[in-house]
């Protein structure tokens, strides 16, 4: 990870392959309302040699083809934790770390029964309730004095993008994703681009039609967390307690991807309890479960698909390690393994036609550039909806005062009154 991060966006960075599809700008407009742009015959593929942004051409779609993103790793600054927040058992917000848990290392062969308590000690979060960016916005309001821009006065925050880590993870994995598309709503408000996911019809249908087995298997990951986490630095895990998935501890980090200043938040499973461990996010630990690996084919699939998701999720906030519990078909954890995020790219090197971190990061970077160029109107109630389906380009459409608007009035009011509150 450190090796990747030390690279800066050098001169060849913008001059190599680019995925922008460009066409002539119609009088400076690069969007229209409530219409989706589709690739059309006037579009042509941008070729290396003419740097993006140099002409009057504007792009209306973005390709996700892997080969277009195989260039030097972009600058990704070491993420810095600028705060954190907690959500309690009833999903109430607290501007503190009360839900942070401590990792307690289990035996190598722990025999944890992940099915235990599913029927009688499980309180599941209602995933039909869409919280959008609300918790992050609450954190921003509670900490706004820390966050004022030192440069532009029209820009309320010192960030180009505010979003969830999970949304960025989806962007990182897009060039390799073959099954699930996504929708991302973006609003420019006081210069900052707020990016919030919208559930696709397909994913809503899947959520509403999960099998009992699938529902139970979703519990297993949380149960594993309960077996391996303690509530305080000196206590031990309590596998007899209730698993309540409303509870969460979230880190808020700031970083930069090439010229994009990012502020995002992500849930953190637990931390190293050693008081001499590195400062957050260096002390954080991501917990995962996965089916045990018994054949070379299973190992290959694990490298190609699972490690991509694990790497993307933890690399973004600078979480250095994933502790995995491998379970059998009955949901019993039979072995444990720790993966250092910085070593995952070496681990997959021998895998034929495998994913590449540089493709993930360059695609994300180009997508953010695309968003910056498209989302020009600064208005709390205008949403640019970016849409992607596997084997297609990214397209967008624009909505005004629609069902997609997601910045709450309380946030807009707080951020607009900020000038008068400043000392
Ligand atoms: P696993 O990670 O062991 O799969 P996270 O790992 O991101 O902290 O998420 C914790 C657990 O939430 C997961 O454990 C899994 O049980 C459940 N989960 C998260 N995202 C999921 C998804 N998209 N589909 C099914 N389960 C999910
Ligand atoms: Mg986890």
Number of extended strands: 21
Instruction: List the uncertain runs.
Output: 1-57
Please identify the structural class as seen in this structure: alpha+beta
Query: What is the total domain count?
Result: 1
User: What proportion of the residues is helical, as a percent range?
Assistant: 25-40%
Identify the notable features of this structure and list them briefly.
alpha+beta; 12 helices; disordered N terminus; binds adenosine-3'-5'-diphosphate; binds magnesium ion
Describe this structure in words.
With 423 residues, this protein is of the alpha+beta class. The protein has one domain (66-145, 167-415). The protein contains twelve helices and 21 strands. It has a nine-stranded mixed β-sheet with strand order 5-4-14-15-9-11-10-20-21. β14 and β15 form a beta hairpin. The radius of gyration is 22 Å and the shape is globular. Residues 1-57 have low confidence and may be disordered. The structure holds adenosine-3'-5'-diphosphate and magnesium ion (MG). Residues 269, 286-288 line the site of magnesium ion.
